[in-house]
Amino acid sequence: MKLLEAVSLNKRYGMERRWFTPGVRGVQAVNNLSFSLESGETLGLVGESGCGKSTLARLLLGLEKPSSGRVLYRSEDYTDWSFSKMRTIRNRMQMVFQNSLASFNPLFTVEQIIGEPLRNYGERKAQTLRVMVEDTLERVGLERQHIHRYPHELSGGQQQRVGIARAIALRPELIICDEPFSSLDVTLRKQMMDLLQELKRELGLSYIFITHDLSVVNRFCDSVAVMYQGGIVERQTGEHIMQHADHPHTRRLLSAVPVQDPRLRGHRISREKEYRE
Ligand SMILES: Nc1ncnc2c1ncn2[C@@H]1O[C@H](COP(=O)(O)OP(=O)(O)OP(=O)(O)O)[C@@H](O)[C@H]1O
């Protein structure tokens, strides 16, 4: 069953300015991009800085409107939905940001941060809210005592856990993760990836996992789509892409990934040589 679909999406910025500033041509952030995500699938969206990954995430979440093209959720076209109509599906699609701290209200405690989406969607009883927040905290590996803390009183890893807790509070079907662990060290990153896997199993989630680092996604994702200049140039399983990348741009991204296995290292060198020639 298709959960999410993008059909010929385009997003061009700066077109309004060209009337005032001669020579301004605008930026084509997303360029004729189509893909679909099956229910229960984890899709890695990989590409270098500026290729349009975050813009695509905003279009999928309905935070911005595309210049042209369509977005569909469970076959329902929501491209032209108003902000208030988006409420009916926003609880099913959530996001985890690279820097959760910046997305939190600094005056809110952890309890208020996680409880906010629940209150927005109608839960009013303080006792029920407390139980739901505690249950969600436990699922992301935080303790009950953390509910009284403010965001700045948490470590970077704990802040990202609160970001995940807020995202799962409404029990969504899809979470879009935009470079969620890039500021964390390798050990912590591994723990957080394991946490996402566990939540996927427990809650039946689907993920779109945005990163510039191919090494992060090859084991975690069912498939990996490589973005280049606003479009998807290649989509394969993680394992396949690490060994048999088709597109020259994917091979260039791969050359930045450290290879542990010496046999694969030899393979990669020959592919890079082929690319250079
Ligand atoms: N609001 C905006 N107004 C004008 N241009 C924008 C806007 N948002 C993004 N862009 C431009 O669109 C292009 C794609 O940006 P985007 O942030 O989607 O890339 P990205 O792949 O997510 O990059 P990064 O990995 O660095 O976050 C860039 O050239 C960027 O400068």
Percent range for β-strand residues:
15-25%
The shape, in one word, is globular
Structural class: alpha/beta
Task: Write out the CATH superfamily name of the largest domain.
Answer: P-loop containing nucleotide triphosphate hydrolases
Give the integer mean of the pLDDT values.
Answer: 88
Structure annotation, total helices:
11
- Summed up, the domain count is 2
Strand line-up of the largest beta sheet: 6-7-8-3-9-10
Describe the sheet with the most strands.
6 strands, mixed
Bound molecule types: adenosine-5'-triphosphate
Q: Which percent range fits the helix content? A: 25-40%
Rg calc = 20 Å
Low-pLDDT segments: 271-277
Written account of the structure:
Pfam families: ABC_tran. Belongs to the ABC transporter superfamily. The protein has 277 residues and is an alpha/beta fold. It folds into two domains: 2-92 and 172-276, 3-Layer(aba) Sandwich (Rossmann fold), CATH 3.40.50; 93-171, no CATH class. The protein has eleven helices and ten strands. The longest helix is centred in the last third of the chain and has 18 residues, at 186-203. Adenosine-5'-triphosphate is lined by residues 13-14, 27, 29, 47, 49-55, 212.
Gist of the model:
This protein is α/β, with parallel strands linked by helices and 277 residues long.
List keywords for this structure.
277 residues, alpha/beta, Rossmann fold, six-stranded mixed β-sheet, 11 helices, globular, disordered C terminus, binds adenosine-5'-triphosphate
